[in-house]
Amino acid sequence: MKLSRQARNRNGMATAGFTLIEVMMVVAILGLILTMGMPAFLHVMRREGMRKAEYDMVEACKEARRAAIMNNQETDLVIYPLTGAFEVPGAFAQVQLPADIHVETLGVNFVESKMADQARVHFFPNGTCDEFTIVLASNGGGLIEVDLDTIAALPVVKNLR
Q1: Following DSSP, what letter does each residue of 44-66 receive, concatenated?
Q2: Is residue 74 within 8 Å of 123, Cβ to Cβ?
Q3: Whole-angstrom Cα distance, residue 145 to residue 143?
Q4: How much is the mean pLDDT over the chain?
Q5: Hey, which of 2-16, 36-50, 123-137, 140-154 has the most confident mean pLDDT?
Q6: Per-residue pLDDT averaged across 121-136, rounded?
Q7: CA distance 108 to 83
Q8: Domain membership of residue 32 as a residue range
Q9: Left (φ > 0), alpha (ψ -120 to 50) or beta: where does 84 sit?
Q10: Total domain count, the chain
Q11: CA trace torsion 44, 50, 52, 54 (10° rounding)
Q12: Of the ranges 4-13, 109-118, 149-158, which one carries the lowest mean pLDDT score?
């Protein structure tokens, strides 16, 4: 009687298992698959940083607008371009841009503020805001622009690359 995938040990007992060559082939195939998939995975991760930065910036703008209208008082979006952080005090906790994302251009009321310690964008209770444009760039070549519609104080995102 022949047993599939079983061998006999010295005592004549049937044992099941894989040979060393079979295990090595499986490991080699897995290694090849991982090696081939790694560049695509890294590309997705780089884009993920830009998506997070875009999402956080848009959410901060929306939260500043909401806070200004709901509290009936001027609310500021505070941006720290040199450190890559921004916040809406009392409404949106400080967020740090991902390590591979930096501020390429920052303008508030048509004044370049990229090298300032901080820039403040005012949101007003009537639903309007200051003029604001920020361009975020990634080390991987991605480039997005976030502008505010000054009449509705809503963010508009443009993918530049």
Answers
A1: HHHHHHHHHHHHHHHHHHHHHHH
A2: yes
A3: 7
A4: 88
A5: 123-137
A6: 96
A7: 17
A8: 20-159
A9: left
A10: 1
A11: -140
A12: 4-13
- Does 5 reside within a domain? no
CATH of the domain at 96: 3.55.40.10
Burial of 99-122, coded b for 16+ CB within 10 Å and e otherwise, reads eebbbbebbbeeeebbeeeebebb
3-state secondary structure (DSSP) of residue 151: coil
Distance CA 92, CA 60 (A): 6
Tell me the whole-structure pTM to 2 decimals.
Answer: 0.71
In a domain, 3, yes or no: no
Rg of the chain over Cα atoms, rounded to whole angstroms, equals: 27
- Find out whether 67 and 59 touch, Cβ atoms under 8 Å: no
d(CA 126, CA 44): 40
- Going from the C-alpha of 23 to that of each of 14, 17, 18, 19, 36, the distances in angstroms are 20, 10, 7, 7, 20
On the question of pLDDT at 2 being above 60, the answer is no
Q: What tens digit of pLDDT does each residue of 26-80 get?
A: 999 998 888 888 777 666 655 578 889 999 999 999 999 999 999 999 999 999 9
Both tokens assigned to 148: 């505010």
Residue 152 structure tokens: 């509705």
User: Running DSSP on this structure, what letter comes out for residue 75?
Assistant: E
